[in-house]
Every structure is written in C-alpha cells, then in structure tokens.
Design goal:
The protein is of the alpha/beta class. Helices cover about 50% and strands about 15% of the residues. The structure holds cobalt (II) ion. Cobalt (II) ion (CO) binds next to helix 5.
Length: about 210
C-alpha cells in the first residue's frame, strides 16, 4: 500500500468507527454546521486545530496559512472571516500561533525564498520592524523567535479588529470575541496571550464610520 492509499484506507476505518459509536453522526453533520469558533492557525502539520482542542467535526471552522497571518489584502482569509462572522455567526475568532514557527524563523533570516514566499514573509518582517528595539535585545535566537511568534499573534488579532467585517459585527451583534493564543510544540499546551471583547479600542486611523 502506498502512503496515499493508506490515507484512503484509514479514512474508511475512521468512517466505520464513527458510525459504530454514533449511527446518526453523518446524517446530523451533513445537513448543518453550527460552529462557535473560527480558528486562524499556522499550516504547520504539527498544529491541527481540532486535535489540540479536542473538538469534533462541526465544532470549529478553520483557516490556516503560513504563520497564521491576517493580511488585509488576502481575499482567502477575508472570505473565510466574512462567512464565519456573517453566515455562521461564530462567537469567537481565535488566532493561534505556535512556538518554533518555521515561517517566523524564515522571516527573521536574510535568505531569498524567491518571489511568492518573500512576499508572504514580508508581512512577518514588518511585525519584527514594529518591535525591533525589544526583539534585538534578546540575544538567544530561539527566545527571540518565540517572542516574535507571540508579538505576531497579537499583531494579527489587532488586524482582525481593524477589518470592517469585525467592526460591523461588533456594532450590530456585539460579537465575536477575538482571542490570541500560542501553542507549545514541546508540551502540547495553549497559552492565551490576549482577548479583545467587542467594543475594544481600535486605533482611530483604522476605524470605519457608517458601517
Ligand atoms: Co508555523
């Protein structure tokens, strides 16, 4: 059996197992999804949103990209956010980074990753630039990376609040709550970094009138 064929056979075993535990499992899920959470995480294969939070299919709506970025020109991210907030009515949006993030490490190096990756990593370099004084003082490279991971999460949550999608939802529905978390690859634990409840302060430069 080739590795990809194993995925298909494991899928059959999983589906069977689900049915044995709960015969109604797929009937219920195929008609409706009502997740309370939107997860914006890193694509890293070691940080699967549902596994590390113990959530089941139907409970968490997921968007993942390199280094869990919220880029205001990213049509993919914004479409997911719009759908999750305005159609699924999620109550919480979580940005979850992780220590030892390869994307963050890459952005801290001077290596040329060629056009497309350079373009993406540039967004992380810009976060470093904001906190340059504090980060440059951390001599240990692993510690400096992990601090940038945390600051990057905080920055991405701020970016969420700066979208008209979130500002409109806060005004009309008094939700969702925004959260910034960081996951530890070494201990499997999630550390909460910040919460932004509806109505939190947003730099007036980024606020919209007549939403
Ligand atoms: Co990562």
């Amino acid at each position: 059996m080739t590795p990809y064929e194993k995925l298909l056979s494991d899928n059959k075993a999983w589906a069977n197992n689900q049915l044995q535990t709960n015969p109604d499992f797929f009937n219920r899920l195929s008609s409706i999804q009502t997740p309370d959470f939107l997860w914006i995480g890193c694509s890293d294969s070691r940080v699967p949103a549902d596994k590390i939070t113990g959530t089941q299919p139907g409970e968490i709506f997921v968007h993942r990209n390199i280094a869990n970025m919220v880029v205001h020109t990213d049509v993919n991210l914004l479409s997911v956010l719009d759908f999750a907030v305005n159609h699924l009515n999620v109550k919480h949006v979580i940005v979850c980074g992780h220590y030892g993030c390869g994307g963050v490490k890459a952005a801290m190096s001077s290596r040329d990753f060629k056009p497309v990756l350079n373009m993406w990593l540039r967004n992380i370099k810009d976060v470093y630039h904001i906190y340059r004084d504090a980060l440059d003082k951390i001599e240990n490279e692993e510690e400096r990376t992990d601090r940038l991971v945390e600051l990057n999460v905080i920055e991405q949550v701020t970016h969420l609040a700066q979208t008209s999608i979130i500002q409109r939802a806060w005004q009309k529905n008094n939700g969702p709550y925004l959260h910034g978390w960081v996951y530890g690859l070494k201990d499997g634990l999630i550390k909460p970094l910040l919460d932004m409840p509806p109505g939190s302060y947003i730099d007036p430069l980024y606020t919209y009138e007549d939403l």
